[in-house]
Every structure is written in C-alpha cells, then in structure tokens.
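Question (not urgent): is this output format expected?
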Amino acid sequence: MQELHLRYFQSVAKTGSLSAAAEELHVAVSAVSRQITNLEQRLDIKLFNRQPRGMQLTEAGKLLNAYALRNQLEVNSVIDEMQDVMTRQRQTIVVACPDGMAWHFLPSVISRFITQHPDIRFDLQMVDSARASELVKEGSADIALTFSLSPDIGVKVVSSHNAAISALMSSEHPLAVNDVLYVKDLCDYPLTMSLNGSTMRYLFDVACSLSGIKVFPSFSCDSLGATYTMVSEHPNMIGLCSAVAVSGKMHKDGLVLKPLHEPQLSQRSLQVQVMAERYLPAHIEAFLVVLEEKLMAVVC
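Got this back:
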C-alpha cells in the first residue's frame, strides 16, 4: 500500500470524518474521499461505514488501523535508534497508569532506572486503568500498568500480578492485631476509599452486598495520596489499597496492610501491558526488566 493511501486512511480513522481529515492534511475533502475509495477498491474491502455524523471503522478497518499504528511506531523506533547511535540523543518512555501506581510505586522504579540510565526521559501519565490500556493501543503510551478484571484486545500482557484489595491502617489500630480481616470487621471504624466507578469500589461493594452489610465511607477520593494521608493522620482510619501501591513506604510511616478474606477482593490483577505485536526498542525492554523485578519483589 502506498504511503499516501495509509496517511489519508489514518487521518480519517483518527478524526472520524472526511472534512476533519481534509483540514488536518490541508487538502480538499474530495481528495481525501478519493484516496479512501481508491484504497477500498484496491483491497476490495470496505474499511469505513459511512454515517450521517462521520466515518466509522469496520472490523477490517480496525485491523488495518492497528497495523498502520504499529508500523508507524516501529519506523519511528528504528529512526530513533539510528539517531541515538549517531548523536546519542535522549529517549523518552511514556508510561500510563492509574493514580494508585503513580503515587509512589512507579516513581520509585523510574528513579532507580534513571540512576542507571541518565539519558532516558520519562513521561508518566495518570489516567484510569481503561484509558491507560487505550493509550497503549493508540500508540500514545509505550507501557501501561493497569488494574484489570479481564483481558483486553489489542494489548499484549507482559506480566500479570495479584492485586488483591487490602486494608491499610496504623500499626496501633485495634484491628492491626488480626492476621486476616473480613469486610464486616470494618463497619465500626471510619473508612476512606475510592469514588464510585473504580474497580476497587465495585469489588468492595460486591463483597459487602454478599456479606449482607452496608459500609459508608467517611472519606471518598480517587487519590491514593489523600487516602494515605487520612490513614496516617487519623488513628482509627482504614484505607483500601493493594500491597504494590504502598510497598516500601508504609512500614516507614508506622502503617500495616491487612488482607481481607473475601474472594471478590482478590479478582483484580495488576497487568503490565504494551501494544500487541509491537517491536519494542531496547530502552523500553530494559525498563520492563527493571519494572518486572520490582513487581516480583513486592508481590512475592
């Protein structure tokens, strides 16, 4: 396929309309329409469904778009590596993750990596787990570290780790003497947890429902930093989080993490994701090795 065909195709796929693509490419709408029609005729495959409000990719179109994105990323990676050999230019790794991973865990891993590889730069994008996966599929992020309940099409899961939801509290908390807790044990204490819509809140609500209880949090927030501060400042406050999120920090601050003995709270996994079938440059592969070592050390 000619580069021009793919360039016009990708623009329409990204913008969702012929007119928006024409504006982006600085050409006439008729020119864009002609290129798309020629490409479909050449392949003898319908790539778009023409709708009143724009152009929607068919299943075949989605496959071609995924290929075009991978091809573009791989070409860019090869060019970057060639330039790095000649000019030793600095390289950037874009990582997308939810707040729980961006608050402490990932910065500590990235800091360790930068110490060993000072020429590498990082962009850390804090988004919800679903969006992190989307950014990887779009090619806007190189790596996603996400909490997931099921596999996601279009991404390759490099590794998957248990991300059971546990109870964070002061080591002086009345419940800290227990080895294992149940959700009913939390009813008599103030609780801080994420807002509705997160996988953590969903699984916790399911566990409470199956236990026949209702738990109303004293403080709801999607910031792990805010949750951590609440638990640190209030002697009886309990927060919900995974072990990875607070590893390497809670013991220094006099906090403990207690497992919750509810099957529903063990259904999450923490996944390291990259774009499916993408060739990864050496500096990204090197970071994945360090990230995996740290994850294994925390979850084991």
